[in-house]
Amino acid sequence: MRKQQILKFSLILSVFSFFIFSFSYFGASAFGSRAATNQAFSENTMIGSVNVSNMSHEEAHAAIEAMVGSWLAETRLMLVYKGQEYTIDPSTLQFKIEDSVSAVVDGARNELIVEWNQQALKALTLPSAVMEKLDLENLKTELLAAGQEFASTTEISLEKYLPAEDPVIISTASIKLSAEDNEIQELAESFNAIEISPKTPFSFAAFVEEAGQHEGSSAAFSQIASALYRAILPTNLTITERHISRQLPKNVELGYEAKVDFAKNIDLKLYNPNETAYQIVFDIVGRELQVSVKGAPLLYDYKITSTNKQEFKPRTIKQYSALLKQGQKSVEQEGAPGLLVTMNREIYGEDGGFLKTELLSEDFYPPVHRIEILPVAPAVQQTPPAPTGNLDTVTTPGENQNTSIPGQPGGTTPPPAYADNSEETTNDEQNTDDGSLWGKPDEQPK
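Below the sequence we write its predicted structure tokens.
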């Protein structure tokens, strides 16, 4: 009996001792934690890109929450692949604000905890080949960094997270060379391959200057630029400057001319919107100049079409010269018809389906009128008609040869008769008008 009482007492004492110890330990810890939440962070405390120095936990939470709301409303997240943009909804990033504030190390730069659901990529129309080879982990890291730093606009190139692609020939264009086109051949053979870097403009004039061939003729350079322009058209490279002549040059098909004249600052300029470089290679094959574009395969297929072709007949302008004899004719200028064409770029998707059409140019060449030089027509001498028998006049010596009217001098021609509706002024009216100014003859002085 006594042993049972001792056992009960010992048990009660143990429970009471544990209660007191737990209350002392955990109560102090809870009180300290509560006090810590009301304590302001020290100087140089950062959570992501937000400075929370001298803020309490509640103030830091509110500041980050406001920053997140503003960022979600204004930011743009884009994935870029071969010049095409795919927008990601920023709300797919989940900001763990409470966990970030609770894990802050005072006086240090701390990470803003952000999570992203990779299923958001399924909402994008990325090519299946891209989705299969995409390095999702590294892509996720860059997206989370954009959210942590509250980047206003973020463009992420997917080429960085895909295996490198072997270069291929994307398009080729050529022009035929005649026996007189030796200058074009010499210039093309002196050119090295042109490399257009990613996101970089290109100037044909600057390229020629660097190659040290700026002494060539404008006609030769225009032929080469036209071949380059035609090779570029079935790609996604952008034409930023291009000119044409008043007349279509030989060896250049309608719609594919690119005139250059460096002395007049007439240039051909391009822009590469891709994340990879592309090369332009010049080759002389037989009597042809070939221009090829090499690089990573493009996302879409491009087809060049021409529409609205029209031809305008020239007129013939005739001029006269006294230096030519009758029956001779000289042609000062041969005529040529005017031309009009509209060039378009059709874009087809990965599955071959038509996507859209882009207008490239509307080229117009005015007609050249034909000018002919003809001899001056000879003057035509007019012979007066022979007098009739009724009007024959016989002159008798001593007889007056002139017909006169009484009251007029002999030999004068009578004045022409006035029409009935002509206005005449009588003497009375004239005297009345004169009297109004000088008075009447019989007027008594006043």
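The CA atoms of residues 385 and 391 lie 13 Å apart.
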